[in-house]
Amino acid sequence: MTVNMTIIQESADRLFPNQNLDQVLANLLLEYAQKNLVKYRVQARQLTEKYQQNFESFRQFILKSEPTFEMEQDYFDWELSVTGTIDMEEEIKRLNSLVQMQ
Question: Which residues contact 40 (CB under 8 A, 6 or more apart)?
């Protein structure tokens, strides 16, 4: 895929006035990480409400029992949301420090 830098620059100028492309990219990455963080937190909250317990309690239950397919799938989704939340929080800290330096 060939990138037309003229179009990219024009769009960046229109959407992010007074910012260079490095600043635009940092801001877009920050917004994307924040969006992912919300997605992971929502999923974790939904599973917490569904099972009326926190992830660690549910994990212990899964390890000690023979879970249904649905429970096993929920476990993997929940684990992804927990690790995804941690990853996105760290990424947001990194990107925030970068954006604040601009």
Answer: 80, 81, 82, 84, 85, 88
